[in-house]
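## retry 2 of 3
previous attempt timed out at serialization; input unchanged, resubmitting
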Amino acid sequence: MALEKIIRHPSKEGNGASPLLIMLHGYGSNEQDLFSFAPELSDNLRIVSFRAPYSLGMGAYAWYAINFDADQNKFSDLDQARESLNILKEEIDALQKEYGNTSENTFVLGFSQGCILSLAFVLNYPSKTQNIIGLSGYLMRELVPNNLKTEDFKEVKIYNSHGTMDQVIPVSWAQKTKAFMEDLPIDYCFEQYPAGHGVNPQNFFSLRNWIDEKIK
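## retry succeeded, writing output
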């Protein structure tokens, strides 16, 4: 399955491959959402914003379904989540081949459900990207491979942030993710902001600086 996407190419193509930034939107959104960040990010980046594969109707999409039982308990469709991870691997493989990128200059930025996919992606496919920006999400442990080989993550760098007033995904879930990641040989940065389920200006400036430092 090929995902719908929108692309902003770098202002100038150098001799080497321009850094590649993949964007994964949240549940119920679409590829236009995070793409609104593009004008404020480095002109050197090639930015690709994907539309998730599962339609919710009215221009809303998801990387996997979220279902509720009679008692309003929430369940994630793990089969769909794993399928989305496989699709993303194929899409990123194709982009890296087309534009000459390696894991070192490939970034994945995800918000909410897109953050969940981003964090799971790097643990399943560390050879595909070394740079993850995870916003307002958490690590879904069911998507973590059983046979983690810690040496695979020595080059991985993660910027992870969360709002302390998030009523959609509690900050405590992000703090558990922090504890898990810090047990791995990952260059891991975690920041909290006085915000709800979103990215406030201070948070955006911080993540932009993090990206800029990595592409110098």
